[in-house]
Amino acid sequence: MKSKIVVALGGNALGNTPKEQLQLVKNTAKPIVDLIEEGNDVIIAHGNGPQVGMINLAMETASKSEAKTPEMPFPECGAMSQGYIGYHLQNAIREELLNRNINKPVATVITQVIVDKSDRAFENPTKPIGSFYTEGEAKTLTEQKGYIMKEDAGRGYRRVVPSPKPIDVAEKEVVKTLVDSGHVVITVGGGGIPVIKEGNSLIGVDAVIDKDFASEKIAEILDADYLIILTAVEKVAINFGKENEKWLDKITTKEASEYIKQGHFAPGSMLPKVEAAVEFARSKKGRKALITSLEKAKEGIKGLTGTLIID
Ligand SMILES: Nc1ncnc2c1ncn2[C@@H]1O[C@H](COP(=O)(O)OP(=O)(O)O)[C@@H](O)[C@H]1O
Ligand SMILES: NC(=O)OP(=O)(O)O
């Protein structure tokens, strides 16, 4: 049966450098085109943590160097990350479609996502961006650049920025029109460029929206049947990494909420995925969310693997 599917791509779908990304998106395009080939309408969202951090640091370093390039505001760095990732992704998907003789246009929509300027997240930066650093390097970055650095799920230190919740998608009508006319759309890249609404103006703010929450928002707006969050693990686990680790096949939103309360999911990594999945599955009868790996997406949608979250 044909479904409308929002696919959220994690860090492993894109890598950390332009060279790595250009290579990795070729693989990323395959499971996406598998879903399209089976007749589904597919909308693609993706993260931008490493990329927006890289762009911001590079622009800041260049502006303070002898080159004296203009200072680049943070929201513009977010927009650059959407364009750069979208460019690679749309070309890879276009090529994979053509290789399978599927004639479908692919486009990236530069997407702004409206946030609340009084969101408490602005007072408590939590979203990791950029590269990983040692504790010593992190201290130096705080001293030299004033960055707030935090330990990221046992993987090293990263800069953190505020991560407000998405309220609405400014370009939603454009995205709907494109999807309804059979186009493959890449949208809410990096969670969308965070903006606040002031009268008729949309004003960019220094933040990074979590792509799992933004993907959930656009999936609701588009009345999608499925939210598929693709990451580095095939399934979600309770007691992750412990002796009594248990991989989950199918859970209800009630069970998932209980596991969230018990602290089974790492903040900034698995927690937003499970929270977004629960929100989507609860938003309308029949909606389902699936968390699985990029490689297993095709099997996952057939119900053969992954963690399915239903209400
Ligand atoms: N309970 C859990 N079950 C499975 N994976 C978990 C869990 N808690 C933390 N993780 C880790 O979270 C990672 C996914 O988060 P992350 O790498 O930040 O996501 P993204 O794919 O969006 O970049 C997994 O690869 C895994 O290492
Ligand atoms: N914007 C965002 O959520 O990026 P990551 O998935 O790379 O953290």
Question: Can you walk through the features of this model?
Answer:
The chain has 311 residues and is of the alpha/beta class. The chain has a single domain (4-115, 169-310), classed as Acetylglutamate kinase-like (Carbamate kinase), CATH 3.40.1160.10. Helix content is 39%, strand content 23%. It is built from nine helices and 17 strands. The chain has helices spanning 18-37, 49-64, 74-99, 135-145, 172-180, 211-221, 253-261, 270-283, 297-301; strands at 4-9, 41-46, 106-108, 112-114, 127-133, 149-151, 157-161, 168-169, 184-186, 193-198, 201-204, 226-231, 236-238, 246-248, 250-252, 288-293, 307-310. It has an eight-stranded mixed sheet with strand order 3-9-2-1-12-16-17-15, sandwiched between helices. Strands 8-4-10-11 form a four-stranded mixed sheet. Strands 5-7-6 form a three-stranded antiparallel sheet. Strand 13 and strand 14 (246-248) form a beta hairpin. The chain binds adenosine-5'-diphosphate (ADP) and phosphoric acid mono(formamide)ester.
